[in-house]
Amino acid sequence: MWWSGARALRSSLPSSSPPPLRTLARAPPPGLLPRFLSSTASPPVPDAAPSSSSSPPPAFTGNLKKALAGLRRIDLDGLRWRVFDAKGQVLGRLASQIATVLQGKDKPTYAPHVENGDMCIVVNAKDISVTGRKMTDKIYYWHTGYIGHLKERRLKDQMAKDPTEVIRKAVMRMLPRNRLRDFRDRKLRIFAEGEHPFHDRPIESFVMPPRKVREMRPRARRALVRAQKKEQDRDAKAQGKAEAGAKAKVAT
Q1: How confident is the model at residue 155 (pLDDT cuts 50, 70, 90)?
Q2: Euclidean distance between CA atoms 110 and 120, whole angstroms
């Protein structure tokens, strides 16, 4: 067999043949290897001190798949990431500002047929506020398609079920119904809590404009003046009675 021939060839080689390559490598002298490693080792880099000025963003604990859905279909080049804090804001006033940013009406390049709006991130949707008695009187209606299946849900119940849909419905009903509506809907990201997964983006907070308080109507103003005058007359009479009683005590 072939191994018997290889064994015979190996035995016929002279004894002065060079040893195999694996025997040529010799062990380094003692003490040389530690000195070589210590000379080539890079000096230890001191740990960076944690910066106390910038704290890490809170970890996102919501549905990440839902939060990132549809981002691949958006051209993010040149878009700004605007963050809206809904805590304590009036629902309608906040929705009007979001609709303005989604349509790009705050830009000098606005055109009604061009989609150039920015990304809108809304946080703290559960802390939105409404005026009047809308929390109990406002009702959302929808139909299932079956005869007599008209459903309804009050704003209070919708806030308990999913507060993000309250802001989404308010914003979408302020947008024009055209082919750009779906693109603008993808740019709107609403979160019930104060955390979002877009901290790696160049986000910037949106500052709500100051609320303009409407002047009182003439009828309400006249009623307020009458009430203030009546209160002043009542205080004057009470003060006069107190002074008269003090004078009577002094005279006696």
Answers
A1: very high
A2: 17
Segment 166-175, tens digit of pLDDT:
999 999 999 9
CB count within 10 Å of CB 110 equals 13
Helix (H, G, I), strand (E, B) or coil at 102: helix
Going by C-alpha positions, the residue among 94, 57, 60 that lies closest to residue 191 is: 60
Which tokens sit at 202?
């160049």
In whole angstroms, what is the distance from residue 201 CA to residue 81 CA? 7
Beta bridge mates, 143: 150
**36-46 exposure pattern, b = at least 16 Cβ within 10 A, e = fewer:** eeeeeeeeeee
Tens-place pLDDT, residues 81-97: 999 999 999 999 999 99
Task: Identify the bridge partners of residue 120 per DSSP, sorted by sequence position.
Answer: 82, 188
Nearest-angstrom CA–CA distance, 82 and 68: 16
Q: What is the pLDDT of residues 42-82, one digit of tens each?
A: 444 444 444 445 567 777 888 888 888 988 899 898 899 99
Torsion angles phi and psi, residue 235, rounded to 5: -65, -40
Contact by Cβ (8 Å): 85, 124? yes
The encoded tokens of residue 21 equal 């390559």
Instruction: For residue 1, count CB atoms less than 10 angstroms from its CB and return exposed for 0-12, middle for 13-18, buried for 19 or more.
Output: exposed
Q: What pTM value is reported for the model? A: 0.63
Number of residues that make up the chain: 252
Residue 74's identity, in one-letter code, is I
